[in-house]
Write a structure and sequence with these properties.
This protein is 22% helix and 19% strand. The protein is of the alpha/beta class. It has one domain: FAD/NAD(P)-binding domain (3-Layer(bba) Sandwich), CATH 3.50.50. It has a six-stranded mixed sheet with strand order 6-2-1-10-20-19, covered by helices on one side. It has a six-stranded antiparallel sheet with strand order 5-12-13-14-11-17. Strands 3-4-18 form a three-stranded mixed sheet, with no helix packed on it. Strand 8 and strand 9 form a beta hairpin. The longest helix has 24 residues. The protein is globular, with a radius of gyration of 23 Å.
C-alpha cells in the first residue's frame, strides 16, 4: 500500500512498570488509552500475544489465510481457531485484538439485557454515556448508498415477520474524505471489497489500531507484541504489588523461540478476551478467587450459515483486488432483521465471504455437493475453472445471527493448562432453533442449499450436528454483586474469594459479560471498559498508589 502507515509497537520489554494491560482488544485498548495519561511516560505497558498488522499485510489469498492460522509453531498467526467438542470459536491474535477481523458493527443491546444476571448498578441508563463515549472515539457510520444485493435478500425474512430490515452502524470510513482521522492515523475511504473479516488492507476499517491504541501511545503507553501471559501472582519484589509471568516469542526464520519473562507492577488490567483472561486467572493458582470463575460462558447465541448455490447470482463474495472499482460487495455487514424482544429473540445480518476464504470454501463445498450434478457446482471444481461469476459460490450467501443462549458454558483448563469450554448441551437452546428456522427460510427463498456451520461440510464425523460456532465468546470472569455469583464486582475488580477484592487487579473485556448481549458485543465491551477505567481513575488510583 502507498499510504504511510506507521507502526505503534515497541520491542522494548521492561522488567518493572506501574501498570500492565494484558491484551489489546476492545477492553484492553480502552483501558490503555484512559490510564496512560495518568502515569509517567513508558510506565504503562500493553502486552499483546500476537504481532502488529499494518494495512497491506493482511492475508488475501487462501495460501496466506492458511499460513495466518495461529498454532504452536506459528504464534504470529492472526486467526485463533479452536475446534471444540461442545462449541467452535474464532478469535483474533494481533495488536488490536478482535477488531482486526470483526465485522465493524457497533450495536447496543436491548435495554432488557441488563435487567437479568447483571449487577444492580449496571443498567441501560447507566451505560448510555459510555456507549456515547465509545462512538465518539470510533465514529461509526451507516451505509447511505443503494442497498447491496446481499442485504436486499433479507427482505423475504423481514416480510415473513411483518417488519423491515434496518441498516447497522459500522466503524468504517464510508464517507469521510480527509486523509487523517481524529487520532492522526491514515484511514482512507472504504472500497467496498467485502474482505473485512480477514483484515482490512485498505485501512478504512475502524480497528482499535486506528483509534484507542494510537491515543494510548500518544499519552505515553508502550505496546509490546509477541508476548503471551501465563499467570498473575503477588510480587516477591519489594515496592510492587504484582508480578506478571509468561513467554515472549522471538521469530527466527520459520521458527519461533520462546523466552520466559516477568514484569513487576502495581496495577494489572486483564483484557485478553473471554477465554484468554479466564485462562490466565485459572492458571494463577496463588490467588484466592471466586468459586464462580469460569462460569457463565456464552457464545452470544452466534450462528453462521451459508445459503449455497442459489438461483440468482449474489454479491456476497469478497474481491480478489480490494481496489477494483467495479467490485462492490460492500462491508461485511450492512443490514439486519431485528427480531429481538424484551424476553429474548435474535437478529439476522447479511454477510460476505472474504476472497481468501472463498477460495477454499469453493472447493470444499463443490466437492461436498458434486453429486447434485449442477453445472455451477462443477464450475467451482473443474480444473482450470470457468469464466468469472458462473460458479456456485458466486451464487451463495453467508448469514450471521446472534441472540441469548442461556450462558451455561464453563471454561476450564485442560491437562496442558490451556482454557477450553465445556458445555454439553451448547446447541440445544431455543435461540438456535429460531435462528436456524429463519436462515432456512432465507435459503429456501433463494432456492439454495443450507450449510449450517461450514465446518460440518469438512469434518462432521463424531460431532453433533447442532454444535454452534462463535466469533463472540463472552463470560468466564463475569460481573456480579457477590463473589458467589461472579468473578468480578460491578467495577471490574477481581473478587478475592473472602468477601473483598484483590487490590490493583481488574478485568475489562468480554469475560465480564454475564449474559449474551444479543447483538455484536464490541460496543458493550468497550463501554464497560470505559466505565471501569473511569471509576479506577476517579476512585481507586490514588488509594492504590498509597498502598491501600
Amino acid at each position: 500500500m502507498s499510504a504511510p502507515f506507521t507502526r505503534l509497537a515497541s520491542d522494548a520489554m521492561p522488567a518493572d512498570c506501574e501498570v500492565v494491560v494484558i491484551g489489546s482488544g476492545f477492553g484492553a485498548s480502552v483501558a490503555a488509552a484512559r490510564l496512560a495519561p495518568q502515569v509517567a511516560d513508558g510506565d504503562l505497558v500493553v502486552l499483546e500475544r500476537g504481532r502488529e498488522w499494518l494495512p497491506g499485510e493482511f492475508p488475501t489469498e487462501f495460501s496466506e489465510v492458511r499460513s495466518s492460522v495461529r498454532t504452536k509453531r506459528n504464534p504470529d498467526g492472526l486467526f485463533d481457531l479452536t475446534f471444540g467438542r461442545d462449541i467452535d470459536s474464532l478469535v483474533a491474535s494481533g495488536l488490536g485484538g478482535g477488531s482486526l477481523i470483526y465485522a465493524n458493527v457497533l450495536l447496543e443491546p436491548r435495554p432488557e439485557v441488563f435487567t437479568e444476571g447483571w449487577p444492580a448498578e449496571i443498567t441501560a441508563a447507566s451505560m448510555a454515556p459510555w456507549f456515547d463515549r465509545v462512538r465518539a472515539m470510533m465514529r461509526p457510520e451507516t451505509w447511505q448508498g443503494p442497498t447491496f444485493a446481499k442485504a436486499a435478500a433479507l427482505g423475504s425474512l423481514a416480510d415473513a415477520h411483518g417488519t423491515a430490515s434496518t441498516r447497522v452502524p459500522v466503524a468504517i470510513n464510508l464517507t469521510r474524505p480527509e486523509p487523517l482521522n481524529a487520532h492522526g492515523v491514515v484511514q482512507p475511504q472504504c472500497t467496498l471489497c467485502g474482505n473485512c473479516m480477514t483484515g482490512c488492507n485498505v485501512g478504512a476499517k475502524g480497528t482499535l489500531w486506528t483509534n484507542y491504541l494510537p491515543a494510548a501511545v500518544r499519552a505515553g503507553a508502550r505496546l509490546v507484541t509477541r508476548v503471551e501471559v501465563d499467570t498473575v501472582a503477588p510480587s516477591p519484589h519489594a515496592g510492587r504489588r504484582w508480578v506478571v509471568r509468561g513467554r515472549r516469542y522471538e521469530q527466527r526464520g520459520r521458527r519461533a523461540t520462546v523466552v520466559p519473562f516477568e514484569v513487576s507492577c502495581d496495577l494489572v488490567v486483564l483484557g485478553a478476551g473471554a477465554i484468554g483472561t479466564t485462562g490466565i486467572l485459572l492458571r494463577s493458582t496463588q490467588l484466592d478467587l471466586s468459586p464462580a470463575l469460569g462460569d457463565r460462558f456464552s457464545g452470544n447465541g452466534d450462528a453462521l450459515a451459508v445459503a449455497y448455490n442459489s438461483t440468482d447470482r449474489r454479491t456476497g463474495l469478497g474481491a480478489a483486488d480490494q481496489l477494483d472499482p467495479d467490485f462492490r460487495t460492500g462491508p461485511t455487514i450492512t443490514e439486519m432483521v431485528d427480531l429481538r424482544t424484551p424476553t429474548g429473540g435474535h437478529l439476522v445480518q447479511d454477510g460476505a465471504i472474504p476472497h481468501g476464504i472463498g477460495e477454499i470454501l469453493r472447493r470444499i463445498l463443490g466437492a461436498r455437493f458434486a453429486l447434485q450434478r449442477d453445472q455451477k457446482v462443477w464450475c467451482d471444481i473443474r480444473a482450470g475453472g470457468c469464466p468469472p461469476g458462473c460458479g456456485a459460490l458466486e451464487h451463495s450467501q453467508v448469514w450471521l445471527a446472534m441472540g441469548g443462549d442461556g450462558s451455561r458454558g464453563r471454561i476450564i483448563l485442560d491437562r496442558r493448562g490451556a482454557p477450553r469450554v465445556v458445555w454439553r448441551d451448547s446447541g440445544t437452546h431455543g435461540v438456535f432453533a429460531a435462528e436456524a428456522s429463519d436462515i432456512a427460510l432465507l435459503s429456501e427463498d433463494a432456492e439454495a442449499t443450507l450449510v449450517a456451520n461450514p465446518r460440518h461440510a469438512l469434518m462432521a464425523r463424531g460431532k453433533p450436528s447442532y454444535t454452534p460456532i462463535t466469533v463472540h465468546p463472552l463470560g468466564g470472569a463475569v460481573l456480579a454483586d457477590t463473589a458467589d455469583a461472579g468473578a468480578c464486582d460491578s467495577r471490574g475488580r477481581v473478587f478475592d474469594g473472602r468477601g473483598g477484592v484483590h487490590a490493583g487487579l481488574y478485568v475489562v473485556d468480554g469475560a465480564l459479560c454475564p449474559t449474551s448481549t444479543g447483538a455484536n458485543p464490541s460496543l458493550t465491551i468497550a463501554a464497560l471498559a470505559e466505565r471501569i477505567t473511569a471509576g479506577l481513575v476517579a476512585d481507586d488510583l490514588l488509594r492504590l498508589r498509597a498502598g491501600a
